[in-house]
Design a protein that fits this description.
GO terms for molecular function: hydrolase activity, acting on carbon-nitrogen (but not peptide) bonds, in linear amidines; metal ion binding. Zn(2+) 1 binds at residues 75, 86, 178. Allantoate binds at residues 203, 261, 274. Helix content is 33%, strand content 24%. Strands 1, 2, 3, 4, 5, 6, 13, 14 and 15 form a nine-stranded mixed beta sheet that branches. A four-stranded antiparallel beta sheet has the order 9-11-7-12, covered by helices on one side. Helix 3 links the parallel strand 3 (69-75) and strand 4 (112-117). Helix 3 (88-103) packs across helix 11 and helix 7 (226-244) packs antiparallel against helix 8. It folds into two domains: 3-198 and 313-388, 3-Layer(aba) Sandwich (Aminopeptidase); 201-311, Alpha-Beta Plaits. The two termini are 22 Å apart. It is α/β, with parallel strands linked by helices and 389 residues long.
Length: 389
């Protein structure tokens, strides 16, 4: 099958008619449909499919051999109201690359796997790259089994969990193809590039507590309003990130009791922060927390900050990246990826990026042109051939 026919199969799955964006949350109907599609495509190619206790899938071309296999692939889940390409492009391109390699007569001397990691976005249970973290052991099942989604559904009720199975131990190298989530390749006028590394990044929960009160009868000076504290904290995050040339975003917020005519008693907000060095990230979050605490003192509210997930600086394997990206432009990424988790766990990893002409990601406006996607398949097939043949 061609890349175009594969893409045509999955393009409508999980798409919202109102926004045009995608809702492919893990273990929900759209993502489960894509997982079934992946199994069908693997079977049609005589690839042996394996599933670990956390729901990660891998389809093998060739018999496994400890420490010698090459892995490619990405993820199929999306953020809420996300774009079409973030994740699925890497899975579809991997299958298309295998087809192209077979057309070229490639006979792999070592196994090649196409992996699908679950809950990469963290859009349902709030932990980015959860599937790959569980697979490599950097997250423990006992620590995450009790996580709940927005509807109160427990992760442990959806997937068996337990101890990691040894499938990842046979992987010697990982190459992930992904749509670029910025304008680097647009500015470089290049269809495909290779990643140098991933910025340090993390998620912090800000719990702000005040006093519930009447929106009409309570004088402004008599309030202990955590929403005011949050509002100033969001502005502080914007200011501190701009001053430092880094990234800070409050993209999710919950208010209790969430009534129009009531001063809230509690506001919970999640900070996503990213920086070009580990030290810069620490300084950025500390500066935001300091201003939030000062504002809480003035508002008569209390502040608690919890680091939910933090990932340090990741530099991809230089030798592998040079081999995979021969002749391609090199650029860093500020987005987290499963490749970063595997690299941090000691598995040499590399990433290929496909140009995104809009420069927009995590949005229905995310895009990629077919000719650039085909160039990505060619680059991936070349890279994998060099690694397995």
């Amino acid at each position: 099958m061609t890349f175009e026919s594969l893409w045509h199969d999955i393009e409508p799955v999980g798409r919202s008619g109102s926004s045009g964006g995608y809702f492919r949350q893990p273990w929900a109907s759209a993502e489960l449909e894509l997982r079934a599609w992946f199994r069908e495509q693997a079977t049609a190619r005589d690839l042996a499919v394996e599933e670990d206790p956390f729901g990660n899938l891998v389809a093998w071309w060739g018999a496994s051999a400890a420490g010698d296999a090459v892995l490619t692939g990405s993820h199929l889940d999306s953020v809420l109201d996300g774009g079409a390409y973030d994740g699925p492009l890497g899975v579809v391109s991997a299958l298309a690359a295998i087809d192209l390699m077979r057309d070229r007569g490639v006979q792999p001397a070592r196994p090649l796997g196409v992996g699908v990691f679950v809950e990469e976005e963290g859009s349902r249970f709030g932990r980015a790259c959860l599937g790959s973290r569980l697979a490599v052991g950097s997250a423990r099942w006992d620590d995450v089994a009790g996580l709940t989604d927005r509807d109160g559904v427990r992760l442990g009720d959806l997937v068996a969990g337990g101890e990691p199975t040894p499938w990842l131990r046979q992987v010697g190298r990982f190459v992930e193809l992904h749509v670029e989530q910025g304008r680097g390749l647009v500015d470089l006028d290049a269809a495909v590039g290779v990643a140098s590394g991933i910025w340090p990044h993390g998620r912090w929960r800000f719990d702000l507590t005040g006093r519930a009160d009447h929106a009409g009868t309570t004088r402004m000076e008599d309030r202990a309003d955590p929403m005011l504290t949050y509002a100033m904290t969001a502005l502080a995050a914007n200011k501190q990130a701009r001053l430092a040339g880094q990234r800070a975003t409050f993209g999710r917020i919950e208010a209790h009791p969430n009534g129009t005519n009531a001063v809230p008693s509690r506001v919970t907000a999640w900070l996503d922060a990213r920086a070009d060095t580990d030290e810069a990230l620490t300084d950025l979050v500390a500066a935001i927390e300091k201003q939030a605490a000062e504002r809480a003192d003035r508002d008569g509210t209390t502040l608690s900050v919890t680091a939910e997930s933090v990932t340090g600086d990741v530099a991809f394997d230089s030798s592998l990246s040079t081999s995979v990206g021969r002749g391609l432009p090199v650029l860093p990424t500020q987005a987290g990826h499963d490749a970063g988790v595997l690299q941090a766990a000691g598995i040499p990893s590399a990433m290929l990026f496909v140009r995104n002409p809009s420069g927009v990601s995590h949005s229905p406006e995310e895009s990629a042109e077919t000719r650039d996607c085909l160039a990505g398949v060619d680059a991936l097939a070349d890279a994998l051939t060099g690694l397995v043949a």
